[in-house]
Specification:
The protein is an alpha/beta fold and about 750 residues long. It is built from 31 helices and 8 strands. This is HAT C-terminal dimerisation domain-containing protein.
């Protein structure tokens, strides 16, 4: 057959090598690093080539491995069958397979490194994932020619993360030092699963572009002490690291007295070391969510105001979840002690220690109760039964499976340290009331005394209606756009809710002494913390600077005797801190020569001068007073008061007042950011990673937080990207991640 009418599909010999290697080299040879040799420690270990087809053939040199592939595993030769011109023209239309060089050039190492760092920090995948075979196979499935470009060392990845942590720490420092607002912080102490105490220091500020920013600045270990002094030193170290000692704003934390001690210590340290004045008492913001939850715990558990005072004193020395737990435990112990004393007294008087319900009754006797018998709403039969039902379900997978099949929604269980937990449990029960009643009828004997009766459902409905505003207020305060301007309004609404509900349950139609007493307990706690806001002028100032409220809110909703002191306090804060001219950044204009003497003015000019309208000098105008006395105005629903003040037109119209508004309205209402940090760190310190060091946890959590908050923007998001050069080997710490067994640490 002539050469011009025939085509050769295959060749009888192997195809030519690519880059000195057989074309099937990477598919035959498994390339690994031998780290057992101390000689290769700094280079990642000796490269070993293992033939996957033979299994036992290993080579130390690439050339020997390549010869093995050529001699023992040649590419299968194709037949020399001739084809027609028609077939040749069809095959010409197929796109040629890309060469190895083209595929290697298509690999983007920067994007690959950014993805790995994000997976290990933002998603908290363990470092050992880098060495998983499946991890390598996933990358090679996308591009089979990048095996020698993959990162397969845990230590290398730690160095990459450390380099990015160092670099972006300095970038965030620049953002903090050029901020348009003070740097507000929120802190909380947490004990990790591997029994280390970590202090989360979170910041919130308005940057130079007038955008609200949040960041986890540090997560240091408090190894020696949990005192306020120790926490203050960790905060000072963080402030000095970022150079923001002079820009420190307000501190948001829970109600533990250690936070008061911490701020007092910060006040002393800033003055002694940096000559910076800091008013600890005036900069103390109490987390609104903690206040709401303490009030709810009082409503559910408290038996008397004396018990509440004792619980507050007992819980004042702890923080976070421990504070809520301690507060609840003291209330519960007072309740049990009071009940035992009442039973003892009744037995001495010949009375029955407990009045049992009549057999067959369909209602819980909750309407008539003496003041001495009151022991908190959580102790009523309906809630005890709901709790007992949750315990019964969790005691056996068979019980839970039957419930899931019949009801279709997990009931959950109340938890004193989880906000609004009772509301969530009751809400689910009411939503599935019909199915739950049917389930209880089918399993009446197994459920026993935990079966909910008609009166129990009535009480659950009352408690559900009462708790709903508290759950909504907590969620509202947790939002990203919440600020201190909502704190007083939320407490006003909840106090009003307490008072309205108390009137309902005091009426003859809905009389319920237990609810009245419980409401009194919750109101006592909420009003206590409401009064403490008088010590911090920014609470009232934030409310007055909200364009939707201004002074009209105070006049409409507050007692008249409060108006004068509240407005005077906010006005004094404005006059002292903000009603002054800022020094200009521009050089002063040189003084020109005095103008020549003007001619003597004529009589008409003198008369005109006498009739001129006298205008108010802008420098002496009181913007604060004029703003708060204007009628309240609506702003777009998707615009917060802070965003409204950050708009150019507001900053131009109120140059000094806008600085005050941006300063105050950027203060967080609650310490939710440390709580979010701890929720994520629990996954970082999982049970199989208990050897991870506290410094590594800090790097992971900070880098991941900066990625989530947009302070680090990868290249594919048109950002600066992550650093592709790892920290030098000598500067990196040892890797103590999940490479060791749990019991090695324990």
């Amino acid at each position: 057959m002539s050469s011009d009418t025939s085509s050769i599909i295959g060749v009888t010999e192997n195809p030519p090598d690519v880059n000195g290697l057989p074309s099937n080299f990477l598919s035959i040879m498994d390339i690994t690093k031998d780290r057992s040799s101390t000689r290769g420690r700094k280079t990642g270990g000796k490269t070993i080539y293992t033939c996957t087809a033979c299994g036992d053939k290993r080579y130390d040199h690439k050339a020997n491995a390549a010869n093995h592939v050529r001699n023992n595993h040649p590419v299968a030769s194709r037949s020399t069958r001739s084809v027609s011109g028609t077939q040749r023209s069809i095959s010409a239309h197929f796109r040629p397979v890309a060469s190895e060089d083209a595929l290697r050039n298509a690999f983007n190492p920067q994007a690959y490194q950014e993805a790995l760092i994000s997976i290990l920090t933002r998603r908290r995948v363990p470092f050992s994932a880098i060495e998983w075979d499946e991890f390598k196979q996933l990358a090679l499935a996308c591009n089979p020619y990048i095996k020698d470009s993959l990162i397969t060392s845990q230590r290398t990845m730690v160095r990459y993360i450390a380099a990015n942590y160092d670099f972006y720490s300095s970038e965030i420092k620049d953002s903090l030092t050029t901020a348009s607002s003070p740097i507000h912080i929120s802190t909380d102490l947490w004990t990790s699963p591997h029994r280390h105490s970590l202090l989360a220091v979170c910041a919130q500020w308005v940057d130079k572009d007038y955008k609200l920013r949040k960041a986890l600045l540090s997560l240091p270990e408090c190894a020696e002490s949990h005192s306020g002094e120790a926490q203050a030193q960790a905060v000072i170290d963080t402030l000095e690291k970022y150079g923001i000692q002079s820009k420190l704003g307000w501190h948001t934390g829970d109600n533990a007295t250690s936070n008061d001690t911490c701020l007092e210590s910060i006040q002393r340290k800033l003055m002694s070391s940096h000559k910076i004045k800091f008013n600890a008492k005036g900069r103390r913001i109490r987390c609104i969510a903690h206040i709401i939850n303490l009030s709810l715990q009082a409503f559910l558990l408290a038996s008397s105001k004396e018990a509440l005072v004792a619980a507050l004193e007992s819980a004042s020395g702890v923080t976070g979840e421990e504070l809520l737990s301690q507060f609840s435990e003291v209330l519960a112990s007072h309740r049990k002690k009071a009940a035992a004393e009442r039973n003892t007294a009744k037995r001495k008087n010949g009375e029955p220690a407990r009045k049992h319900k009549r057999k067959g009754s369909t209602a819980s006797n909750t309407s008539v109760i003496s003041a001495d018998d009151f022991s908190g709403v959580e102790n009523v039969p309906a809630l005890r039964k709901l709790h007992g039902l949750a315990v019964w379900l969790s005691s056996s997978s068979l019980h839970q499976n039957a419930w899931d099949k019949a009801v279709g929604l997990r009931s959950g269980m109340d938890n004193r340290t989880r906000w609004s937990s009772w509301y969530q449990v009751i809400d689910r029960a009411i939503r599935k009331k019909d199915k739950i009643q049917s389930f209880m009828s089918d399993h009446e004997e197994a459920i026993g005394d935990n079966r909910l009766l008609v009166g129990d459902w009535e009480l659950l409905g009352k408690v559900h209606t009462f708790l709903q505003p508290f759950a909504s207020a907590t969620l509202y305060a947790e939002g990203d756009d919440s600020s201190i301007s909502q704190s007083l309004m939320l407490m006003d609404m909840l106090l009003l809710h307490y008072e309205e509900q108390q009137k309902i349950y005091q009426s003859d139609e809905h009389s319920d002494e237990r609810m009245v007493r419980a409401i009194d307990m919750g109101w006592f706690i909420l009003s206590k913390y409401y009064r403490l806001t008088d010590e911090v002028p920014v609470y009232a100032a934030a409310l007055l600077l909200d364009p939707r409220k201004r002074i009209a809110y105070i006049k409409q909703n507050w007692p008249k005797e409060w108006h004068e002191d509240t407005i005077a306090s906010a006005t004094a804060f404005w006059q002292k801190k903000f009603n002054y001219e800022q020094p200009s950044d521009h050089p002063s204009t040189p003084t020109s020569m005095p103008p020549p003497l003007a001619k003597k003015p004529n009589q008409l000019a003198i008369l005109s001068k006498k009739l001129e309208v006298r205008t108010i000098n802008a420098s002496v105008r009181d913007d604060f007073t004029s703003f708060i006395n204007v009628d309240a105005t609506d702003i777009p629903p998707d615009c917060t008061p802070l965003e409204w003040w950050c708009q150019p037109q507001q900053r131009k119209q109120y140059p000094k007042l806008s600085r005050m508004a941006i300063c105050i309205l950027s203060i967080p209402a609650e310490s939710s950011e440390p709580e979010r940090t701890f929720s994520g760190a629990r996954r970082t310190c999982s049970w199989d990673r208990l050897r991870i060091t506290c410094k590594t946890i800090e790097m992971i959590e900070c880098t991941g937080n900066w990625l989530r908050q947009g302070l680090i923007q990868p290249l594919h998001e048109n950002g600066m990207g992550l650093i592709g050069i790892p920290r030098p080997e000598g500067d990196s710490q040892d890797v103590d991640d999940d490479s060791g067994h749990y019991f090695d640490w324990y």
